[in-house]
Every structure is written in structure tokens, then in C-alpha cells.
Amino acid sequence: MATPLATIGILSIGEMGLGIAKLLLAHNYNASKPHPHPHSPIQPHTNQSNPHSPSSSTQSRARSAQITLLPTDHSLISASDYILSIVPPRDALATAHRIIGAAQSHPRPPSKKTPLYYIDLNAISPRSALQISSLFTNSPIRFIDGGIIGGAPKPHPNNNSGDDDDAAPPSWSKPSLVVSGPDALRDAPVSGPNLAEVLNIQHLAATIGPASGLKMCFASTTKGFTAIAIQSFTTAYRLGVLPELQAHLAAYSPKTGELAAKGLVGMPPKAYRWVREMEEIADTMAEEGGFERDMFAGVSEVYRVVAEETELGGEKTESRKKGTTPEDVARLVGEGLERKKVKTE
Question: pTM here?
Fold first, then answer.
């Protein structure tokens, strides 16, 4: 077996992080993550009331994918050539603080002659990216602003699975990883050009902010539309006209209906992440576009209702039980809104 090209630390192993880890492993990279440990001086950010906090299921996902579990953030920094931050938007700043704190208290070993790169791939505004970037100003760690556009990497179903040495390399469906900042990944000394190709990296600019901004503009159209669909389908369900709405969409705007149905069914496990992401979009549209925050503050509230006021809030991507059809999503959101109304009366 060939020597791995580089070691990539991944924070954390959700659906996207797991997909990227599998992609890297398939292309001869090491992938690792810190294992929450009761005696570690630096712990991952957790919320005991949040069903999506780091858990045994996260650890089992990592082990099943052959991701190396390291005991602490210190060990992750020592072992890694690159760290990818892929956490819920609300945790982006705290995660950067964790890594900076660990690097200051336990510098990398002298044997590591090349710089460590911290690639922030979180769904945050340009202002938040600049705030996080400022933490690395006097640090030996190099910061890259980034964003992920598209779904988690997956191998194409027609990939070769045999041991034929002459077989074509497996092909993957990949999201676009847009990045910006003064340090280009393709110029990094450890496998930089290859890593940029494997991850489908597009370097946009030499400044911090454009990559996060592009992610925000893209997500506003996709997740913003899904929030509209949530309101539309739920209201139609409560009016008793959901089948008629679906029939009219199929007849007069079939692509809209298909996008709405796909967005509704795929949204529940991610709604809790999108609450803060919509706030970051609101900030972006206000600060960079000159608009009011109201529209996406409202979209954030839609996802908060789904995550906190309905039975859909406990859904996980790998074990879906509820909200697997548009009709079920509309019903459960409607029931959640009714309970919310009763509580406030």
C-alpha cells in the first residue's frame, strides 16, 4: 500500500464531514478527528440538550469509515497537515478558538517542518469569516476561508470494486469547495495541488470573505426556497388542499414541485444547523448587499420551529423515521405549530 499523501484532521464527522473523509481515504489520504475524552483539557463544544451533539453514533460513524480517532485537539494538531472545520455555523467561532488554544498550549513538534492549514468550510457570513481569521493573525497556522456548495461526496454507483490493477480509478460525485484568502491550497507544500484537485477546490480571491459570501448567496436560494415550501405545503395541509397544490404544481410548474418535495424530505435532520446559517445569510444580505435582515431572520425562525417545535427535530440522516414524504413533513410541522399556538394562549 502506498504511503498516505497527507493527514487531514476533520471537525466534525456529520454527513458532510463523513463524505469528505471517505473521499480523502479513497484517494490515499489519512483522515482523523479528535475523540472526546473526559481528561482532555480541551473538549468539543457540546450541548447536552441537543440530540445532534457529539455522541457514540458519531464515533461509530468515524470508526466504520476507518477514520483515525485521536485523543485530543493537541494530538490532532500534531498529526495533521490540514484541518477542515465542518461544524454547525453556531460552533464555527468556538471551534477556531479551541484549535488556537490547543496550538498555543502545545506547539507542533519540531519534526513538522511545514505549516498547518486551517480551512474553515462553515456556512458563515464574510464578517464571521473575517472575525475567525483574526484569531490566526499571530499564529503559525495558516487560515483559509471556504464554503461547501452541493451535497456530500459519494462514489458513483458504477465504480470498479475489483482488484484489477488496470481498472480505472473510482469516480466520485463531489461538491464544489470554494476558498479564498492569501494562502492558496494548490501552493501548499504537502500534497497541495493533489489535495486541491481531490477536494474540487476553486480559489476565488486573495482576500478573506468572498468564499463565505458565495456560499451564503447560493444557500439563500436553495434553503430559502425550502423554507417557502415548508410554509406553502404546511398551510395547504391545514387548509385541506395539499393534494390540489401538489397536482397544480405537477401540471403547471413540475420542476418547482419536484424541488419542493426534495427539499422538504431532505431538510429535517439539517434544520437545527440552518437556524444559525439563515442568520448568517441575513447578516450577509444586510452588510454586503444593503438589504434588511427581516427576510432571512424569518427563514431562520421557520427552521427553528422545525428543529425545536416539531417531532422532526430529532431526525438523523442515517436513521430517518419521520418526515420521509412531503405530506408527512407538512402534517408534522402543522401539528407543531398548533402546539406552539396552544402554549402561547
Answer: 0.90
